[in-house]
Specification:
29% of the residues lie in helices and 22% in strands. The protein has 494 residues and is an alpha+beta fold. It folds into three domains: 11-190, Ubiquitin-like (UB roll) (Roll); 261-369, Uridine Diphospho-n-acetylenolpyruvylglucosamine Reductase, domain 3, CATH 3.30.465.10; 382-480, Enolase-like, domain 1 (2-Layer Sandwich), CATH 3.30.390. The strands form five sheets. The protein has a five-stranded mixed β-sheet with strand order 2-1-5-3-4. Strands 10-11-16-12-13 form a five-stranded antiparallel β-sheet. It has a four-stranded mixed β-sheet with strand order 6-7-9-8, covered by helices on one side.
Length: 494
């Protein structure tokens, strides 16, 4: 104690120790493999086997848990996430709620509702369903939508969903756990640095969790081969499905300023680590089609983890966000050390698996303009399943039509080439022409010069080419003959 009587600050926790809150108690994990998943930790280390492994890729929801974290401005935000693709260091400094946390003297209302409405048969999916309903009850991010949307990330082979939905409707709101003071006490300021040596393989792994953009920039320069991870909805599968041994991981989820959203009349700037669940209101404000597409991007659990920057930075040719933002004229902010450069999003994708990101450089932000008043913006996601499915193709159309003539066009596709890409020949066939069938027919033919799609498990090349053509025609019909029905009724949103 110092002479003034004030208590000395507690010593900072030793590096390499992962500390989190579970049922009001601080848990410490020492010497863990940083690519060990939260699911493995729960089932194998803590013997909390209520949380199930169904798919190990964030698709079935059987492993759903709820995580609470401090907001920068105070308070605690809660998210339902898939434990199977969350790495253990990602819950450092956070609160974890599992299905075993719910029943104390009696069943939690979400559990009781599932019993009362016969929402479980084999029971394998039930814990995950219960945790999604619990997240909805306490107001978790993204859990305030229609019940069907909240439960879209939970797959069940037995009940046909009717009894589960009835249970969801009967689950009352609930107060979240009061953990703010405990999390404030738990919170560390130093960079979390976890090192692990696999004695069987001789491979070492390291996890760095910087707290500031400046420290992040230094780390990326010092470790140019490191894998950058934010939500792990993609990288998690590298470990669980491909069994890759990742030598160095730099985690972006704790970087102050990388999860901020700023808006003005011209557009919205998203920090690269902004999660989809948090970005949804701002994306919807840019255009309703963006919001509608994001609600189909994974289940609630994936949207509560996956990030705007991650979907772009990994360069997937079938990512939904890049074509949607390319059509709007989005710009990336790339940073290396103290230097920043701005790059049109369409120029970031060079070839399959290759992006214009230099050694030591990372995506810091994405700037998305708002469509000009009176312009046309249409966005389509084509997939076999309506909810939480990977696209066969994604198409975005941004057109300006003045006095019946197309004066500007930005058209982008995902799933049609090795990278998300603009349809430049299609655009050229439209600009300067009356917005009518003749111009669209020529622009449809021009798509053959823009793309030579491939056949794969999601769609054939012929299907992709035909759908791309028909989507352009659909835009024409919807903008010139709005009385013609062209869309499947969205029962969840009217």
């Amino acid at each position: 104690m110092d002479p003034s009587g004030a208590s000395d600050p507690p010593p900072a926790p030793a590096q390499g120790i992962i500390r989190y809150l579970l049922d009001g108690q601080v848990r410490e994990v020492v010497g863990a493999d940083p690519t060990r998943t939260v699911l493995q930790h729960l089932r194998e280390d803590l013997r909390r086997t209520g949380t199930k492994e169904g798919c190990a890729e964030g698709d079935c929801g059987a492993c759903t848990v709820v995580v609470g974290e401090l907001h920068p401005g105070g308070g605690v935000g809660w998210r339902a996430v898939c434990a199977c693709i969350q790495f253990l260091p990602m819950i450092d400094g956070k609160a974890l709620v599992t299905v075993e946390s719910l029943a104390k003297e009696r069943l939690h209302p979400a559990q009781q509702a599932m019993v009362d409405h016969h929402g479980s048969q084999c029971g394998f999916c039930t814990p995950g369903v219960v945790m999604s309903l619990y997240g909805r009850a306490i107001g978790a991010t993204g859990a305030d939508g229609p019940i069907d949307e909240v439960l879209a990330g939970n797959l069940c082979r037995c009940t046909g969903y009717g009894p589960i939905i009835a249970g969801a409707e009967a689950t009352p709101p609930d107060a979240p756990p009061d953990v703010e003071a405990a999390l404030v006490a738990l919170r560390r300021e130093a960079t979390l640095d976890v090192a692990f040596e696999d004695r069987l393989s001789g491979q070492s792994r390291r996890w760095l969790s910087p707290r500031s953009v400046e420290v992040l920039a230094e780390a990326v320069i010092a470790e140019p081969q490191a894998v950058l991870v934010a939500g792990a909805t993609d990288v998690g599968l590298w470990v669980t499905k491909q069994h890759r041994a990742l030598a160095t991981i730099i985690y972006l989820g704790e970087v102050a300023g990388l999860s901020t959203i700023s808006e003005d009349a011209q557009g919205v700037q998203f920090g690269a680590a902004v999660r989809y669940g948090d970005a949804l209101p701002a994306l919807t404000s840019i255009h309703p089609d963006l919001g509608a597409m994001v609600r189909r991007l994974g289940g609630m659990q994936v949207r509560a983890s996956g990030t705007i920057g991650g979907n772009i930075a990994n360069g997937s040719p079938i990512g939904d966000m890049p074509p949607a933002l390319i059509a709007l004229g989005a710009t990336l902010v790339l940073r290396r050390g103290e230097a920043r450069r701005r790059l049109p999003l369409e120029d970031y994708f060079l070839a399959y698996g290759r992006q214009d990101r230099r050694p030591g450089e990372f995506v810091e932000a994405v700037i998305v303009p708002r469509p000009a008043p009176g312009s046309i913006y249409k966005l389509f996601k084509i997939s076999k399943r309506f909810d939480q499915d990977i696209s066969a193709l994604c198409a975005a159309f941004a057109l300006k039509v003045e006095d019946g003539v197309v004066t500007a066009a930005r058209i982008a596709f995902g799933g049609m080439a090795a990278t998300p890409r603009r349809a430049s020949a299609c655009e050229a066939a439209l600009v300067g022409r009356p917005w009518a069938v003749d111009a669209v027919v020529d622009a449809q033919a021009a798509l053959d010069a823009d793309f030579q799609p491939i056949s794969d498990l999601r769609a054939s090349a012929a299907y992709r080419a035909l759908v791309a053509r028909n989507l352009l025609l659909k835009v024409l019909i919807e903008t010139t003959a709005p009385g013609i029905a062209t869309r499947v009724l969205d029962l969840a949103h009217g």
